[in-house]
Amino acid sequence: WILVQPCDASATIATARTAMAETLNGRLHPFLPDWTRTNSIRTNKYTLYNFVPTNLMEQFSQLGNCYFLLVSMCQMIPAISNSGGIPMTLLPLSGVVAMAAVKDGWEDYQRWVSDKRENEGTVTRVDAQLMAQQMKWEDLRPGMVLRVSNQSPFPADCVLLASSDPDGDCSVETCNLDGESNLKKKSAVFTPSEWEDALRCFCEGSAKANLFEIEPPSDDLYTF
Questions:
Q1: How far apart, in whole angstroms, are the C-alpha atoms of residue 208 and residue 22?
Q2: Could you tell me if 138 and 115 are in contact, meaning their C-beta atoms sit under 8 angstroms apart?
Q3: How far apart are CA 65 and CA 56, in angstroms?
Q4: What is the spatial distance between Cα 58 and Cα 83, in angstroms, rounded to a whole number?
Q5: What is the dihedral of CA 24, 29, 32, 33, to 10 degrees?
Q6: What is the tens place of the pLDDT at every residue in 115-138?
Q7: pTM, whole model, 2 decimals?
């Protein structure tokens, strides 16, 4: 059982600020999701609408392309042209720009495919009625409660609420973040007995609202 915190686009640790509790339909909603924030990852630069202008702007920000474009424009002026007013350098320049655009577009498409594969991973969410449901990683929001099985990845920073381990511990591998393959021990907020008491109070409707204050986003992986 885990309290979800969002993951930023650069795949570094980004912590959420607050997860609150509320009363919903006479029952306690454990955590209030922040629907204004998204867990979707996007690393591609272009879209179908801005690819042509953005790519042309990037290419002609290079001095070499600007030089040959200026030469082509000067060749179109008969008074100073050495090619009879025909922009002879425009054809090779167009070929270079077109090939670079194709390369940039293909590379950006591969990034989009990778982002889509990452965003469509699934995780188990537990709702206010303690019912489990599958949802995509990109649909996660701060404040949601997750159930993570052994050897399963999770796409966000999380607060460990409880563990099936008798001591309330679990081991986490962070090689995707820092390259370290050794397991790191984490301890749950609640002991197993405290978690059972919390669930019983929740089912009886006598649980109290809780407030979690979390530090602002940080790229420091080792302190929290």
A1: 9
A2: no
A3: 10
A4: 29
A5: -100
A6: 998 888 888 888 777 778 888 888
A7: 0.66
